[in-house]
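Ticket opened by: R.M.
Priority: normal
Category: complex prediction / small molecule

The reporter submitted a protein together with 2-phosphoglycolic acid and asked that the result be attached to this ticket for the collaborator who will pick it up next week. Submitted input follows.
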Amino acid sequence: MKVITVRDYTELSATAGQMIADLLRSKPACALGLATGGTPLGTYQYLVERYRAGEISLQQVQTFNLDEYCELPRSHPQSYYQFMYDNLFRHVDIVPENIHLPCTDSADLQAQCDSYNALLHATPLDLQLLGIGSNGHIGFCEPGTPFDRETFHTRLTDKTRQDNQRFFDSLDEVPTTAITMGISNILQARAILLIASGEAKAECVAQMVKGPITEQVPASALQLHADVTVIVDEAAAALL
Ligand code: PGA
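Result attached by the on-call engineer:
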């Protein structure tokens, strides 16, 4: 694991954005795994700025998001589909047909998991962008998820729902389940870029980087991958 410590969130966003921009320039038709949450917002902003400056294009890129809430229609302002349009897709030249998120608007969620999983197998990811949950989750792979798990329908832990409550009016509105890539899908990406910011992430970052490899800390599975870059600001690096 290559760990890069930067001063603050602005520098973190620029460093992560630069890595993705470099990939877009060297391989314009790449497959990108994307993440939602508060942490990647600055990275997406950086990419939008590079696009507006004429430095990058996403016209040939295929994107695959890590996860999507169940119980929310795609049109809901807090669906990850909307998040991605609001913060990245609407502002760049990506082709809508090349955008992929798990589809949770269906009675047969297992069939949706299977079809998303088949899509991931058909299109190996060049780079997977990740945040990390304060409980060590990646995607919505919560503690206890077997490392060999592929795309599945999962129940969110109370901790994750509390962490995500800030995006909703009340805890009751936070969905209880989601479809997520499994840890095995994430580990199949050619390269992985994990970003973490702020003191609330210091403990889980330390466990991911130097703790035992254990299903109780899903992000510790990244120690098994040969090409992982972790970018953390000083606050998130405090316990390294
Ligand atoms: P955050 O979420 O970026 O909003 O902290 C990260 C995650 O839960 O993976």
